[in-house]
Amino acid sequence: MRKFTFTRSISSIISIVIIFGMANNVAVAQDGISIEEITVTARQREESLADAPYTISAITAEQIEARGINQLSDVVAYSPGFFFSDNNVGKNSRSHKRLIFRGMNPRTDIPTRQASAMFIDGAATVGAEFGSMDGIERIEVLRGPQGAHFGRSTYTGAINIVTSDPGDEFSGRINVEAAQHGTQRTGVVLDGPLGESLGYRLSVSTYDTDGMYDNSNVPGQKLGAQSTDDTSLTLVFNPSDKFKVKLRYHTWEDSDGPDAATAYDYRSGTHNCEPGGLVERWDPVQVQAAAAFNFNPATNVPHSTICGQVPVPRTIGQDTGSPRALSLLSTRIDGSRFPIANGLRPVPDFMVPDHFGLEREAEELSIVVDVNFDNGMNLNIVSAQHENAYSTHNDTDRRVTEGLHLIGQGGGVFGGFGANHPADAFDLRMNSMEDDSIEFRLSSSDDQSVRWMVGYSQLDMEWFTQVIGNLIVYYPSSEDNAARQAAGDMPVCYNPYWPFSGAGLAGSNACGAYGDTTSNNNDMKWDSIDNSAFYAAIEADITDNLTVSVDIRRQDDDITSGGVGAYTGGFPKTLGAVTAGQNGEFSRTLPRIILDYKPNEDTTMYFSYSEGSLPGTFNPSLATLSASQQAEIAVQTGGATVEVDEEVSENLEFGIKKTILDGRGFISVALYDTDLTNVHTPFFSPTYTGDDGNQAILSGNITSQGGEASLNGIEIDGTVILNDLWSLDFTYAINDSEIGEGFQSADTFDLDGDRNKVKGNMFSRYPKNSGSLSANYSKEVSADREMFARMDYIYTGNMYASNAMHAFTGSGSKFNLRGGIDTDTYRIEAYCTNCFNDNQPKGLQQLYDLSGITGGFGDGATNAAGMRIVSIALADKRTIGIRASYKF
Fold first, then answer.
1. What angle do CA 148, 151, 153 make, to 5 degrees?
2. DSSP label at 661?
3. CA 239, CA 165: separation in Å to the nearest integer?
4. Cα separation of 507 and 36, whole Å?
5. Could you give the CA distance from residue 644 to residue 617 in angstroms, rounded to a whole number?
6. Residues 765, 105: contact at Cβ < 8 Å?
7. Range with the lowest mean pLDDT among 95-109, 122-136, 501-515, 607-621?
8. Rounded to an integer, what distance in angstroms lies between the CA atom of residue 431 and that of residue 461?
9. Of 131, 210, 274, 740, whose CB neighbour count within 10 A is largest?
């Protein structure tokens, strides 16, 4: 399915050659001015960024400070082809993160099934969270499949974070920062020797912000508040240049408030199109009439949405402060209904926040051993353990919906049954994960024409999740529908089967029959991963200018996915037993071949072929169905089965790196073309014929397979020193994607009424076009004092809310300004981020509306689809602040 056209490739390459030729023609020698060489270690050996024959961006500690990078999402602006999505599950939080490379959105927030992974000092970690940026020596962003070298979950890219070693002499630094929106940062770094062979580095920091958006529904509450406490300690034992041991411990805690997010339903006045899908919505006329024997007072209506740019709301609100919301929150955590499932799996205990928002506790422990032999060979051993437990209390419908049922505007998730139920939906989502890894690498000396490396890695991962919610018709309500009917009010939680209850119309209130809090065994899931791999690499200099390298990895991914048995007894419920649902081994050989040609010392040209794989998975809920029921599901979903094979990527890449202007500039250009096969697609609540002959709904998500897609684009990264005062940095990327045959889209089914209409569309929730331009000014005003200034222009193109490509963010242009004084003992900087208050949302999602206002899941009407709203993760507002450092 390779569609990257020959003419487009040739045109791009010709353009590159012209650019390079012009750069050489205008080169003017200026002695003493040249760009600094950056060394990277992504291939477990030191090599110049300019010489590395693969697509990589590197951000050094000095650049992290100069650009004001405080978290991994800030790296996006300076790394073409990379996008960091925190718009998970329609939110705007620091819980789940997605590393999106070249538009490949993994379509799941399950940490063990991500398309890209983060490595810390060479060790893989579950999740994409890191804590404070203090103590980072370099961030390496590798684009394209990295499976041959890095292994699991590096399907389309990887992040390699290199932490700092202690210095040879004692030093310290105190950092303080204050800015608008109650933003404060403080930190202390101590660094130095503990003897001739032992050194240490200690970092302690805190971060707080009050949030940028008022909650219109809760006076005095801000949305988007965040807080982090972070501590790390590094010890390095280095008795000689032959032996080095690095031990690092890092821990941090996050405590955040409700997210800065909202959502638009069909009542918002923003919906402007009906793409063709249908949704089942309860009919107020039928419910008001309370007609006897009307067993489904619902109607299929056109599903509306937003087509075009999504407007940004002037005010936002969530149900995160009323007595009712806080009372329901307490029922989720006090154990009076459902127990917290701690101790069932080998992971840290769940966090249980007593407020809306997020709580996280994370720890990292790693040891790196380097042994250099007299013959130039090197033995590298990396062992690490990471723990990450985080939980969120959420207003699941993302907007103010409390009390709407009392005025006849409640929800109807189950169509006619329970119609006009309370629409304020909440949940407590708890996640806990742990990984242990060890890796051995033996490599030859670099001072020979044929170089090699062999290794073995072992990675064990555990993930466990539990959800306890207050959703849909589970709320208690003492409303008397007979009294409401007599007063001319709309019945609440209308049970169309009330004539058979014997209680008359007064008994037609279905609310409360199921309790006020809900959780079931489908809300507890776990994965256990045992990944082992052997790998080898050989690199040979064919001539003085041409080098060929081959990397190959053989990995076995043993996956067990399971759950927990049904709760038993009355309230408080008792946990069921752990169930091992499905187990399987996914084996794959992942190659990478690179041709590296250096026509001169200033130019590197490379061509590569590589493969990657997205981990396989299971649909345990299908295992309990009959063969005929599984066949029904397979037809609906395009091939969902109990076992889902790995998704595979094949990538062709051509790149040029060139030092220009007599060493005063550097440019890197990469062209790529990637085929994706057996693409996984999520499905929510498919239907099948139950044992009683009636239609049944399979609750939760399942994963289909067999789709095809392609990625292609161009990425540019460069630096130019104009003179001894000014320099420019620039990036630009076009990252295109196209969904092909066999991709069964729930997005287009729900919104357009056609699962196959997605063919030819793009992946969602990333920008096809992005870029940045930075101007740096630096002037020495005295022997120990430097004046500096910096301007960043950051462009982010449209991002679609779903693969249906109806709603999008519009493009964004952000300007950051910085300036100050730097000396040997202090640094003072004033800054402005997003100076012109660009309001492009961080992301959008066509979220399922669990309030029930949009409609239901179909409830017997097979031509009606899922109910979607447009959720919005709001932009960070303009922030003006000052930061200072004292160095000693």
1. 125
2. G
3. 14
4. 78
5. 5
6. yes
7. 501-515
8. 13
9. 131
What is the average pLDDT across 177-202? 97
Q: Which helix (H) or strand (E) holds 634?
A: helix 627-637
Mean pLDDT to the nearest integer, 756-765: 94
Q: Are 105 and 98 in contact (CB under 8 A)?
A: yes
Mean pLDDT of the chain: 90
Q: Tens digits of per-residue pLDDT, 211-262? A: 999 999 999 999 999 999 999 999 999 999 999 999 999 999 999 999 999 9
Tokens of 123: 């060790």
- Cα separation, 446 vs 43, whole angstroms: 13
DSSP per position, 652-673: EEEEEEEEEGGGTEEEEEEEEE
* 742 neighbors 785 (Cβ within 8 angstroms): no
To which residue do tokens 């926040």 refer?
A: 353
Element (H, E) at 23: helix 6-25
Token match 């001539």: residue?
543
Rounded distance between C-alpha atoms, residue 677 and residue 672, angstroms: 17
Residue (of 484, 482, 477) closest to 501 by Cα position = 482
Asked whether the predicted pLDDT for residue 16 surpasses 60, the reply is: no
Query: How far is 847 from 684, CA to CA, in rounded Å?
Result: 11
Tokens for 526, please give them: 């776990």
Tokens for 335? Answer: 């154990």
Lowest-confidence pick of 151-165, 310-324, 514-528 = 514-528
Write down the residue that tokens 């073409």 correspond to.
80
Residue type, 794: I
746 and 135 Cβ atoms separated by less than 8 Å: no
